[in-house]
Each structure stands twice: as C-alpha cells, then as structure tokens.
Amino acid sequence: MNNNKLIDKLNYALGWELRAIILYSHYSAYVKGIQRLHLSTHFSSEATESIGHANIVRSAIVKLGGKVITDRNSQEIIHTSEYVEMLKFAFDTEKKASEIYNEILEELKNFNDDELYDSIENIYFAELRSVEEVRMLLN
Ligand SMILES: [Fe+2]
Question: What CATH number was assigned to the domain covering residues 3-138?
C-alpha cells in the first residue's frame, strides 16, 4: 500500500484545516451588527473545531511516518465585513473539506487501519454537518 499518496492527501486536508482556522477567526473578529451576537461565537467555535481536526490529521501523518506540513493552503481568504459573504465563503470551505475527507476515506478503504478510518470518518461527518448548518443559515 502506498503510504506516500495517503500522507500527501492528509497533508492537503491539514492545509485546508489551517486555512479554516484563520478564516473563521478572522470572520469572528470582523462580523458586525446584530448578527455579531450569534455569528461571532459560531465562527469562533468553527475555528476551534478546525484546530481539533488539524490535530487529528497531524497525528495521523506522524503515525504513518510522514512529514507534517506547517503552511496553510494558499487559497485566498477574502476579507469582508458582510456576514452573508462570510457565510458563503464558509460554505465553500466546508464543502471543499468534505470533498477532501471523502477522497481520503476512499483511499483508506484499501488500508488496514480501522482506528484511522474511524477518526477520518468522524471528521468527514462533522464537515457534512457544517455544510448543512451553513446551508440553513444562508437560506
Ligand atoms: Fe474540519
């Protein structure tokens, strides 16, 4: 089994989590108006969730004997103080994350590590819940 391909994909996911931490922390700081009352907390807890995901993915890479990246994904984080735009960018980010974890799960089906599969699946489900949550917020 090719460990390197899996490690590359996990590092790619990690880069997106590192980006998500910054995106959500940024929007949490900037969200204005009455929406700030709930969205600042929401974005802040999404940032915390991303830290948790990043920790799990990082540990998985270490366990596989890989070299962990320290740079975030370079996709631009667009500054805005409009909460609808923030939610749209959050939606794109969550959607992307769920696609990445889905691909990793496909890869892990050929890999004999139930614990790793389970931990990535948990993250994948969390991303799906976030996609649905943001979708509802935007409706
Ligand atoms: Fe995540």
Answer: 1.20.1260.10
